[in-house]
Task: structure prediction
Amino acid sequence: MERELSSKNLAHRKRLEKRSTASAHTTLPPLPAKRYDIAYVDPPWHYYGSTVKDAAAAKHYPLMTSDELAAFDVRSLLNKRAAVFMWATCPRLNFAIDLLRAWKLHYRGVAYVWVKVGKSGRIINGQGVPPTFTKPTTELLLAATTMPTGRPFPLLDLAQAQVVLAPRGAHSEKPAVFRESIERLCGDRPRIELFARQRVANWDAWGAELDDR
Result:
């Protein structure tokens, strides 16, 4: 016998029924012909479960499976000695490292840890989709290089902090401080943001979500 839903659960179900996922892109823009020393990447990770539940990314933009992301030829955009800074959520960390390997890159560690804070400056409480254990309040900016050892180029700011407290913006939007930190760390080198949703001064950008593509 099916259990009768409470009025709260019924209202939530009706909200879900009205939601829809973002339409998949029928085509992706061509990749640039240039090569870069730095790529800053925020993949549209696919997640398990309902695509219309609270905090589901698929409501905001089309997602890509691990195989679809692996087929994306990031390596062709990079110079012989180059670095990739790629965002990963904690529940998808293993997928992120596997993706770097699929792109023939060498995982070199976590460059930055974004700790999300509210308007008061305090670290936020766990929010969003119920996790397996605790709700993550951080995201990781992984570092990878085209070579297995050594630095691809001299670093200019070795005093940078790894842990950064910064407020959240729109869904999946990353704070500008991380681009700025990469610029200070690596210097003025050819660089591109992949899966970008906006253009930023002094960065090339590629992405299906760009308004002017």
